[in-house]
Amino acid sequence: MPYRFRYLFWALGYLTLFSLAVPTTAHAMHIMEGFLPGRWAGFWFVVTVPFWWVGFLAIKKLVREKPEAKMLLGMAGAFAFVLSALKIPSVTGSCSHPTGVGLGAILFGPTVMTVLGSLVLLFQALLLAHGGLSTLGANTFSMAVAGPLVSYGLYRGAKALGLNTRVAVFLAASLGDLATYVVTSLQLALAFPDPVSGLGGSMLKFMGIFSLTQVPLAISEGLLTVVVFNLLHLYEGVPAAGANIFGPRRDTHVNR
Amino acid sequence: MSIDKGGEPTPRSGSLDRAGQSPLVVNLVLVILVLLLTIFPFFLARGGEFAGADDQAEAVISRIDANYRPWVAPLWEPPSGEVESFLFALQAALGAGFVGYYLGFIRGRKKAVANNH
Questions:
Q1: Which of A59, A141, A195, B93 is most buried, by CB atoms within 10 Å?
Q2: ipTM beyond 0.95?
């Protein structure tokens, strides 16, 4: 048991120390305040609102029916909170950060993370001038709607194909992270189509910035998500197979 | 202890689906991989500025549409890089703190349940 504790300690100590050691130069990611023209900013709010609504209802239902899930819900939010703060150097010589929403999407479904992810974005917009209030709809759509949807879909798909759970978690988290930045590029390209090469050319330019930078980070995010998933599985016995972990659970302790 | 988890076999502590690998050893390997992934850009992109990717996006926007001016400014900006990194560190520490608290909590709970049997 002391051995196990030691590894856990290392993993968490790493997360904390690392977050303090990251070089913080400029901002990294999400669409900056005022950088989407008004009608596009509005458009993405409109697109995002239904997901917020469904997410609120899903959280309300979860908290009512499984009050014991509240802490795990908090942890899914906290995980996104840490990972969004980690601005990690990448192969392109610039920095970006992971999103951390894949874990929660796998545990609770995608729309729950729409709500939690938008809270993270709100914090960063208000206190860090990172992202922005006018672009909150667009950034929520990329990081907290598209990313979790891709993660959730991939996780379910990979499990249906009979892949190993950890492989499924890794694929879901890392590709969900990439999807976020592909969508960010698309949002920028739609608002700023290239006068010569059009939407496609513009998309490629933005993708060139975000996506290549994001590849190693996506891999890191996938690995870190598996680390936390492993610990949840070990200590909580989260059923590895089901995405909907709050089926029959701890309260059924009766049959000891 | 037997906990009904919808037909999933209860994982014995310290063992993964595959026999023989402790999840904690697997985790250690994964964390080392993440560290390597983080360090190798410094060698690969030697001399890079390691600035934020969205500042580059800003540059692309001004190349595509030189007349575009951001129409809203942030309500508040951290007055200095130090304050900004303080807030980022705070964000990470709060998040990591809760993640650690929760993992410690469920670990203790599992042990308590095991000791009751």
A1: A141
A2: no
